What does this fold into?
Amino acid sequence: MMLPASRMGQVRKSLLRTYAEKAPNGAINLGLGQLEFPLPESVRQAGIRALQDGHTRYSPNAGFAELRQLVAENCNAERGTDFTAGNVIINCGAEEALFAALFALVDQGDKAVILEPAYPAYAPILQALGAQVNMVRMAEAGIDFTRLESAARDAKAVILNFPNNPTGAILPKKQAAELAALAERHGFAVISDEVYSALYYEERNFSPAIGTDQAIIIDGISKRASAAGLRLGWTIAPLSIARQLEAAHQYLTTCASSVSQAAAMAALADKRHEQAFRHALQQRRDAMWDEFRHWQVGRAAKPGGAFYFFPDLSELGSGTELADQALANGVSVIPGEAFGNAGNGHLRLSFTAAPEEIREGMRRIAEAIL
Ligand SMILES: Cc1ncc(COP(=O)(O)O)c(C=O)c1O
It folds into this structure.
């Protein structure tokens, strides 16, 4: 019998995936973690052209120089940072970027802090690396700095994600600056997963990388260009660690797809689709919020970014019980427990579907759980 490595002991398929795969045909899908918008035309054409012109060889490990330059310029314009192409590594999606960054940064036994509720990939990657994982709950108003400081003062890395999956919260300027100051004071690295950075509504999202050179930004085109299947993301890291990240990425996967890199160049060269996505998603969010207010039960903050809504319905049952009841009434959703203990009794509802479908889905959930 073949035995897995002992470090894989706690690493399992996530509850998120299990529920995402449960959606039967014909169900209204409020469980999706990806946009349903078609690929922007300029991005599609760039991919087709790359194939037709035979751009199907390996790229340099860190990605094509032109794309790395474009990523750096785009990051500086969006966030007010000061990066160059040398800071950028092109990855096979944010997921691979996360693995490569943590692989290059975290030693066995190192302490790593995750802000919770959290995207379910962070803890298993750290467990597979033999790190000691500490979860720190977010407060209603965002990061609880007292709790974070006591957990992170001896940590190697703090991993966070804004705009947030699953809560839809954004990181306001003041909190981004406070986090950067904390990283400076205690010397931990900030792994800032900003894969939803282009999707914000009333206020923009701020990156902690403005205030410290101890931050690693992770981003990509899955959410900003509705291109999750192209598997294209990137890491923006201080030069002191960038070459180690590049080496980790090299031995994981050599380089990202050349065709997807061509598509990513188009996605960053003309960003009009991002504005259109924000506009459409804001309407969908408002439709969901409006229906939720009729429930007169549960508590939730209105999402300021990403495309998720995370109501606390613990007075009605556990997240898995509620998700099963919703599914039995034809709506697929994700139980909050998929995002850690802080998600107990919550549901994650995606507002990627058309507004009418969202409204019908919310009515059916109410019928099932209230
Ligand atoms: C917070 C977060 N980080 C990373 C990822 C992975 O993104 P990618 O498709 O670029 O690998 C996702 C995907 O849903 C996500 O929600």
User: Anything to note?
Assistant: The longest helix spans residues 272-295. The chain has two domains: 6-39+273-369, 56-269. Residues 6-39+273-369 form a domain with the Aspartate Aminotransferase, domain 1 fold (CATH 3.90.1150.10).
